[in-house]
Every structure is written in C-alpha cells, then in structure tokens.
Please model this.
Amino acid sequence: MKSELLRFDDWTRPVEAVEREVVSLTEEADKDLPPLLFVPGLGHGAWAFAEHWLPQATARGFAAHALTPRPGGDLRAHVHDVVQVAASLPRQAVLVGQGAGALVVAYAMGRYPVRAAVLAAPVLDGRTTLWAALRTNPGGTIPALFGGRLRLSRKQLFGPEMPDERARELLGRVTAERPRRELIKHDPAPRPVGDPPVLVVGSPDDRVVPRASLDRTATRYGGAPLLFPGMGHDLMLDVAWAEPIEAILDWLTKELTQA
Amino acid sequence: MPDTPDIADRRDAVCVIGAGASGLAAIKNLREHGFEVDCYERETSVGGAWNWRHDRSPVYAGTHLISSRPLTEFPDFPMPDTWPDYPDHKRVLSYLERYARHFRLEDDVWFGTEVVSVVPVGDGRWDVTTQSTGGGSERVQRYAGVVVANGHNWSPARPEIPGDFRGQVIHSAQYKDPAQLRNRKVLVIGGGNTGCDIAVEAAQQASAVWHSTRRGYWYAPKYLMGRPADQVNDRTLQFRLPLRLRQWLYRRVVALTTGDLTRYGLPKPDHQPYESHPIVNSQLPYYLGHGKIVPVPDVTGFDDASVVLADGRRVEPDLVITATGYRPRFEFLAPELLDSAEDGRPDLHLHAFARKHPTLAVVGLVQADFGLFPLAHWQSVAVARWLRLRASDPVRAAAVQQKESTRPLASWSRRRVVPTARHWFEVDHVDYLRAVEGLLREMEPAK
Model:
C-alpha cells in the first residue's frame, strides 16, 4: 500500500507552479455557503462550466469557480492544481468534477478535506470507459491508444435532443488531447480525508460512463447515483443542463444544513 | 464522583491548549473526527510562535523557514506554489491565519484565555481551569480529553555564565531587529540555526562579530544543485539508503559544498552527520571567509568588560546574544502526568501520548530534519483517531494500546544524538512518520 504520510514525490520533486486559468463568479455570494470549485474533464476547460452551471450556482448564493486543467499535465499535476485552487479559497470548498475531472477530484479528496464533493459522470473505471468509447466512437478513440489524439464525438457527449448547430459549436470548443495511460490505469482513488459527503450523478444513457460503472463508483462512496436519463456525458452542457445542477445544489443545501 | 456545581461539564468535548500551528491542526483534526473542541489561547490571535505580535514569539525580523516549503506545509493545505522555497515569518503567519479562516477554526478558540491547571478526575476525564490572560476569575470545565499544544520555543534556556558583565546580555528571544546590532561589537553564543542566522545578520550590521560554539557542526548549505538541500536529502531517504552510507554521502556533500571550516578556526565536528539537529546555513561560511565572523570557543565567564573564552582568550563585546534555545514548559500540568524527569524532559509515546493517561496528549513537541507542521498534523490525526477509537470501541483500543507498548523506542526516536537538551525530541522524519502511520493503520476505521 502506498504511504499517505511519506510523500517523497512531493518532497523531492514538487509539481512546477504554472499560471492557472480560473473563472470565478463571486458576486452576491452568501458568505455562509462554501465556495464551489468545478473541475472539467478531458478536452474541456473552465468554459464548459461557465456556460450554465457557474451562473446557476451563483444564483443560489454559492461563490463558484471553474479551473481549466493545465495543458499536458499528468494526473498528479491536475490534482495539485485543484488542491492549490481549493486551498486558496476563503472557506473549505466543495469540489465538483465531471468526466475525467471527477477522477482528479477523487484524488484531490485524498489531499484536501473537501466540504463535500460531487462526481458527475465520473471516469473512475478506466477499462470500462475505454470499452464504451471503442464501441461508440472507434474512429476517435483508436488513434489515442497509439499516442494520437482523442476526438470525442457528439454521440458521446450529448443526448439526442441537442440541436445540430449547437452540438457542432460545442464540439468545436472541445480540444482533442492525447490522453495519458493513467486515465485508464491508475491506483484506486485514496480514501477521502475528513470523511466528506460525496454525491455521484450521471446518466444511464451516457456513452462514456456506463451505468454499471456509475453504480460501482457510487457504492464506493456509500450511496446510489442520481440519474438523469436521456442526457449525454456532458451533463453541464447538454440541453437539460439545469436538472443536474439544481439537484446537486439541492443535495448540497441539505447536506450543509444537516451538519 | 460528586460534581461541584461550578464545574461545567463539556461531556465528550476535547480541550486544546494553544492556537499556534500545532493547536490549529489539533482543532481541525479533532473536529474532522467528530469531536467538539474548546481551544484556549492566551494571546488574542492565532499563529503562536510565528506571530511576531505575541510577547512569547521568538520571531525576529529576518526569520524564515529552515526547511523548504514542500517539507513544511500541512499535508492537506498546501502553501501557494508560487511562494519562494523558504518563506519568511510573515508569509508563514499569513498561511496559518488562512488555515484558521479556511476551516473556521477560530469559532472554537477562546482568545485571551490562559490555562491555569489541568487535573485528572478519573475515568480519563479532566478538569481544566482557565482565566483571562494575566488575571481575572477562574473557571473550571470538564473535558473528555486534553491536547497540549503550547509550543516549546518560548521559554528561553539561558546559560549560567559566572562573573559580572558590563555590557548587555540578551537571549535570542529578545532579538527582534537588526538595528539592535548596528555598529556594535556583538558576541553570539550558540551554534544552532538561530545562532548562525543571527551571526550572519550581525556580520552585515555590527562592527565586530564573534560566534561562540561549543563544538563543531555539519553546516549544510540551503541549496544543492539548484534545489533546496532538504529536498535532495529526502531522495537518499526515499531509496532507503542505510544510515552509514547516508552519513558518508553527507560528509562528501558538505566537503564538496561548504568545505572544510576548520581552516577558519572552527572545531571539527565531534559527531557524525544525522547525530545532531541539522544546521542549514549557506551564508555563515561566506562571512567566516570574509573575516566578518570570528569563530570562538565556549564562553567560561564574564569579567567586567570582557568575556572569557575556554581557550583563555578574552573578547570585549558591547552586546552578547545567547542563542541557546528554549525548554518545554507545562506549568499547568503536574510533572508526573507527562512522566517528566527532574530536568523537565517529558517521556511520551511517540513524543505525543502520555503513557499513563490515555486521554492526554501533546502535539508539536518534536524536533526533526523536517518542517514541524506536517508532523503536528499527523500527530493530531493520530490523537483524534485514538480518542475516537477509545470512545467507540474500547476493546480494540486496549488492543492497540497493548501493541503500541511493544513498539521499540529506537524505531521512531533518534537515539544516537549529541546528548544535550537540544536533542530531547530529535526524530528522523521518515522513521517517525512510518511509526505514526503504523499506529494510524492499527486504528483504521472498520470499512
């Protein structure tokens, strides 16, 4: 078992500091509510949350921030960036990760005691995700297996109700990246420090993260997934984006008042 | 046991003494384990030793970290990665203040309140008497546990030097500002990191500087190959090189970087590397080489305007600064509670757990080749987990206690050290953290 206490990697070769892109909406935030930090997945940046979820969270009184993963960074660097931004916020933060961003959040929870966390369409079962991607989008996926770029398809990211034009526009903003092996093959995520409440949300129609994988992840964190049928992998951009974020904020409000 | 009516029973709550780095970590980690916490802090703000406004703070204008940032930050609340390798005391204080605000720790702190006494009342519970700092009426509250985090760098250890001295003698605790040194003849006593840092500041300000050390030390540079030296050193630990090999490497590295200091009149070290607290100072050899610092041996006495040295020489400073360290003090605790010896040295399991009182612990009472905050963090996690286990599963707790009592002292405490009070709490951070991790695993909550 890897030591939680002996962090030689961090002690002997700390992650290089980089300029981080963080989009923040903090006006009219209620000071008693924890800040939210959204972490996007592969090919997405802070913009993916700035579209709908960030303003929606602010409307409910939460200070909301979204971080663009550093280009070319490995999992360790991405986790480092999330923890750095979270620790820079005035209060204990709630992390919301989507897709591969949820994997980053799952790891960050081992390094920072989150107030709460939300794993949206989490890519935590690498192999399952890979098979699903190969079935749905072989042309975009196979090159990535050989060091090429991963091209995500409309079928993977959005449900059938997404208008063509809008889908094209959004897909145009998704960058094709070279995914690292560790997206598929990694140690199990660490036990979250501070035993925070964790919510798993997803869609049974997500072509990236199969239903069984959602269930497994939710079980690991001691719950059942909250499901939004008909939606694609990009819960924050798909046509029905309002439903998951409202449900997340409702859950969060309930968790916060219980404490 | 009959309850006196004026004792407020705080039931399962835990009392933390001190809101410095160690106390703050204790509050946070106890809370994460579900405890209610009351923390008493004699000052009116957090930060303990690192808060230069506190009258017990040893911080002076030029204070900075000796261990580099990644080895000094709390493991679950990193310092900004844009900060320099060795932040100064103002940054460290702002870091502690942000830590406290981030986790709302101040909600549980009673500022301007000092602890007068802590008395066991049986069944593992404690009566804690507090009063407003410096006086006022006393108040007694009963707690399920007490975590002492009052620091160990505030009660100066002053050397007893026979004779009378016409000049000024201060302890390094009273040294705050380089202006105190300007154009004066200064003798700095003490070869620890503080003594060396003050000698260097004096070399830049004073008209003459003598630096008195009792023995030779291994003066390590702050940087090796462009990296903070402690980060390079930890590589040798990561690969689990045996101590002898590491000592050889250390000697080689010091020979190649700092070089031989006996040329300037410093004595040869009388011990191996890793047998004394590491001295990290790149500037000292520089000023020795420029003749700005004159090394002298131990001081044996004062005689009017002069200071008599062990080799019979005499020097005539205007100002003597004794950088001779601090001693731990626990005035509010009867010495036997911490199994303290006559000289004041407590005997605690892992330097943290009172051996005969399972609900009494001390956090932050360690000295390592490492930052203190991470060690205090993991200590307080262990204390919180222990108190939780003891309350929820006494049978398992007893088994853990039994097992811990067989943990060999040599596995976590550095035994081969120069035998001075300076090294009472000296640990090797890797060995120590391994031992704490072993304890944490034994107490892992059932899945």
In short: Residues 118 and 333 of chain B are 6 Å apart (CA to CA).
